[in-house]
């Protein structure tokens, strides 16, 4: 069995154990295998194993890597988890099924226009700068409602919120805050939790866990 499959199986066991311990009902998060920078040989064992959700953070890399794979397997769901520049939106919509990093009206407007041109809809998350970090992307909490209203007015497939909590602080604080905001808008999905903090994210019922190094390992 390939190492990535063993790693994924172990993560799924942990998820199921936490759900059992917390006695959560009707809840099972999706694991997004974050395959950015990893090549075909690392990815295909998971694809062949039946993993359907994968994450990338660069449009060109994703297009080159995933176009032939998706042509053979139309059940694959590809998630854009990195910052998306407006000049990359057209290509992003062609290859991705989800965009987790919508953070401005300008970007949302561009997605709206390109979706009309391409006659394809993607599911989107609004990225919230939950820790108010100047070096990170994301809409501030004070501007969130305006962006949500804009996306709804354009009938975008807005399904939830996403965050990247400060790396050096307790992620539970920020997951709790994002979950409250998500519930305020009655979104069913929420994207939070990565390799270092997905255990905490599960406790706040994240529905999409973006896990990379725990599955693929780290590059030297």
Outline the structure in words.
α4 crosses α5 (105-118). The protein has a single domain (3-12, 28-216), classed as Alanine racemase (TIM Barrel). It has helices at residues 3-22, 40-49, 59-72, 89-95, 105-118, 144-153, 171-184, 198-203, 213-216, and strands spanning 30-34, 53-56, 77-80, 98-102, 123-128, 157-163, 189-191, 208-211. The mean pLDDT is 95. 39% of the residues are buried. β4 (98-102), α5 and β5 (123-128) form a beta-alpha-beta unit. The longest helix is centred in the first third of the chain and has 20 residues, at 3-22. By secondary structure, the protein is of the alpha/beta class. The protein contains nine helices and eight strands.
Provide the descriptors you would attach to this structure in a database record:
220 residues; alpha/beta; TIM Barrel; 8-stranded parallel beta sheet
